[in-house]
## 1
Amino acid sequence: MRVDLYEKLMRAGASRRDLLKGAASMAALAATSGAGLGALTKPAAAADSLRAKIVQIPGVGKGQPTDADFQKVGELCLEATKASVKQGEFAGVELTFMGLNNQNLHNVLFRGFLKPWEAYTGAKISWIDLAQADYNARLQQSIATKTVDFDIIEMGAPFEGDVCGKGLTSEMPDWVKKQIDFDDLVNYLKPPVGTWDGKQYRCTIDGDTHNFNYRTDVFSDPDLAKEWKASGATTEWGVPKTWQEVQAVTKFLKGKKFKGQDVYGYLDAPKPWGGFGFYFLGSRATAYAKHPDDKAWLFDIDTMKPRINNPAWVRAIQDVIDALPSEPPDQINADPNTTGFQQFIAGTGSMIPWWGDIGSNVKTNDSSVIGDVTGFSILPGSDDVYNSKTGKWEKLASGPNYSPNCAYLGWGVYVMARVDSDEKKKKAAWSAAAHLGGKDLSLWTAMYPSGFQPYRNSHFNIPEWVAAGYDEAFITSYLKSEGDSYNHPNAAIEPRIPGIFQYYSAAEDILANTFAGKMKAQEGADAIAAAWEKLTDQIGRESQIKLYKSALGLS
């Protein structure tokens, strides 16, 4: 959805709460917002029989997909490969693929998708599987020791400065761009994302943003509404629109019962997670720290001075400290996998930020008990926003400040430069990457548990999701939260600078001690800032400034 359509929806009165009151609200919104919603509801192409076939494997509500399903989808999507590769063309080629096994997804699915590709092409793939918490350390070790022992890697755009910037990747051939329908990517994932020095290196397989996931039954419960009013609250009981409201609701729900069980509010993820956990503090911070008149929010543009210890970030850190006593026992030891897949979809907690995986998993994961009671919006806003240029908090005339955290820019498949000296191996590696990044296969990964979320314009065709078994109100809400996050005029975009995960990992270690009460919020933030300054000097401050400006579109 374009920014102008987003703004049109907001002018039409489409609050994030209204969008999730069911099909009636969606029908009313469609009637009032005209072309805004129409962009999401264009008719499915009747002739697209392949897409219609794969979205029914196995079908929403028919159990979690298996390896047999992965192979079936991979086989059906092989026609694009056959157009450029002869049967048996890669016989004798052996490739090594490094990626994640997080939640038994990622590499686990890739194996199934690529088995038919291996059978047709004759190539063989060996696998390096990594837990998400181990990923950054393993990749950095390969870079530092110059021992790249893989031909293909599943990698996110934040690492492009470390990998592509050091000449370790193979440039994408033009035939791959055509095969994957490169122009179908949502705008924010097009160049410069996936490029370095003007060359394209990434075959996108995912698009990342944190959205807000919440329990519709909790926030429509009349008994909780009565208790909320009796507590002295001056607002109506409902889905929080700001982080201030999230805090109030989380504290209110402490000790409450819902459907005979303990009910909790927001779920924080304080445990370090290989640098990836920092995004969850970031999602609490962006509405405080990302001013609409300033593209920067992590560092000052001209100096690379960290902003992590300014009042906005310190407030976000303090929010976590203040909320943890109202969250489930031992929440201090919860990482994002815990909050998303062991707690929220299993029925614990009523609010989390997460990547788009939650939206598909609540309907298709066998562990989910909340498929019919989950709603979505962009991340909450803030009543005020910190202006780093003036050093003051401001209340905007337009109302709360919103800034979706477009965390990580999604996963991609990258081919390493070490294959460039062997044309047969190079073509094989890029063919495997193109198969995984194919337009049709990507629709399936967006709909089912995979580790990936919608990232192509063609993923926003609601009738295709309904045909798979999603109900229209649910999927309209979900896709709108994704599109509104990607295209929000004040989105916080990931800076693709060298060492970014070194910054995040250093922060996580210090935050763990801060959340555990060993340091005050400001002390922890100051310690992170000091560590970040040291890292910047080690990497090279002037080059980091230049690349940071470029990442923000300011050079």
Note: The first strand starts at residue 94 and ends at 100.
## 2
Amino acid sequence: MPAPAGRTATPDGDGTRTDTHCPYCALQCGMTLTPAADVAPREFPANRGGLCQKGWTSASLLDSPARLTTPLVRTGGELRPASWDTALDVIAARLTELQAAHGNDAVAVFGGGGLTNEKAYLLGKFARVALGTSQIDYNGRFCMSSAAAAGLRAFGVDRGLPFPMTDLAGADVIVLVGSNPAETMPPFLQHLQGAAAAGGLVVIDPRRTPTAEQANVHLAPAPGTDLALALGVLHATVAEGLLDEAYVAERTAGFDAMWRTVARYWPEHVERITGVSAADQRALSRRLAGARSAFVLTARGAEQHATGVDTVSAWINLALAHGLPGRAGSGYGCLTGQGNGQGGREHGQKADQLPGYRKLDDPAAREHVAGVWGIAPESLPAPGRSAFELLDALGQPEGPKAMLVFGSNVVVSAPRSQRVAERLAALDFLVTADLVLSETAAMADVVLPVTQWAEEDGTMTNLEGRVLLRRKAIDPPDGVRSDLDVLAGLAERFGQPAGRFPVDAEEIFTELRAASAGGVADYSGVTYDRLRAGEALHWPVPAVDHPGTPRLFLEAFAHADGRARFVAVDHTGPAEPPDAEFPLQATTGRLLQHYQSGAQTRAVPELAEAAAEACIEVHPDTAARAGLGVGDVATVESRRGAVTGRVRCVASMRPDVVFVPFHFPGGQRANLITNPALDPTSRMPEFKVCAARLVPADAEPSATQPEAVTQQKPVTQQKPVTQQASVELQKSVTQQASGTQQASGTQQKSVEQRETGGAS
């Protein structure tokens, strides 16, 4: 998009500007920032000089009235300003007390996929060394875990895109499964234009999203049937003699076992399951077979299911059958969502991992990392609970009594969010480190104000495995500290020796390099100097003179025999199919203007104005049957709860589907209704489909709606539903600390006006 009014694309008078990257999605668009916090796009392979609406407004949060600038400690039931020493002393004292009474695992740590590599690394080290707890996981478990598990078992390595995204420009066929980049990462659409021009852009999604509108072919399977569709297309590939037999024989294993399942899924049978015609299935198979260059890309729509790993495996099987992975100019990839969704899962904040993508239960991995940390390998705890189980165990007799949350708003974003709020309320002690008073922070006993993207150095790893340097451009407000400072200050209070927890990002990255050396995600050859020089370094980079590995698998896959694995998978359908009581299928996703739980973007006036509340998208006939019209307030009910929003009638919607975005708090939380059924391998919840019904908002509450949360802490800070109310609350606590408010930034052109500039 072009520069909006009120934001210049020129540097300040002294010519100073800082090359950096957008704080939002895994595209990590290149941008520059002036000392006056003026954003301008820059030429970078990911975005080619474009930014989306969120990128253009990203600097607005730096001086937002919603910004926290002083620690808050709950006193007398209310959050009140406190000094940093007081806040850290309170945290250390309470955690020490709880661990003394209940053991090390009484304290849990929860991270985020938006943390820099340095923060994710130090957070995992802090949990296992300073706290000695096994109870650590992060919100990426809800985003990427299914694709990661499927990639590991197929290829032996998990990297979102095992090729540079610029390779996509030369493709004549690209199949997007459960992905809507027109809203989630608009500049990415530039990489799809070649396939679209060739007539080969295929989008598979139950909704006719803005991405599907730009596709040459849109297939709309029923929610939860993507796996069956992949099996049907694969059946057609084999039955019509389109299998790349030479590739399968030379580079893969497991085809025969896989085929024994796929043989039962002829296209006509799959048509009855998915609603996608047998002719369209065969046409997709022929399209892939005839392509000179082709890619299959999956995203959250395929992954966020109780069978998410198998669903992704089914699409990888199809890609292997056509000989795509490990071939220059073709392949399979996964579109990572969060800003550091790739790097965030590589360096130790997951329950079962150590830095370098090492496994925590591997004795050699434990010995290597312990040596870097200067501790005994046996002192490292065992793997702990994954994210959903961890949140569900909070405050339980055998679960953690306290939790520290860094960079995640679990009250809105986690599955079964009503239950999560209950579990947080049951804790003896809750600490959050955040930019704004999110819905989770509002429940905390201590809230720590931390720096934002433009106020600190650090590395991120984007969706193609490229390590990027996000540079400090401006100083943070007085009273705000980095997460690295927080961890170092707490580690010191837990008796850790000086220097074990550095605060300088480059020093931490040097240690991360050593800890990752020899691992799957080997960063040992990446240095800040190389990144400052603009080198494109895709991991693994095993030596400082190594050029990096932009394309994996060209010679061999990462299994011992060098072969990729076909995996036999079967279709079972959604964990909760529709029935007479709940005849619809609810699915969730993102809106163009917002990101993740919306805690940040709802504080940007321009974005909040454009999408101020939750919508409920339904087919006009579905709305009419429920007695609803456009703009009416409706309720979507499931067996777990109910979510409200305004009706938006969309003629292209399937009549059996209702869509709810997940960016909004309070009674508009989509995760009040989603199904927490977990994938047995990845522990990914089934966000994308559950049985539901649609009723007017003033209808009698159903017997299946849960009772209100019984809070064990005052709810004064938990009431806000609208972003405006949340900002007002944040203003009040900030005013207690400083007595003044920063003026909001320069007003910008409306989102609607920007859309005329195109998706890029």
Note: Residues 1-14, 701-727, 729-760 have pLDDT under 50 and may be disordered.
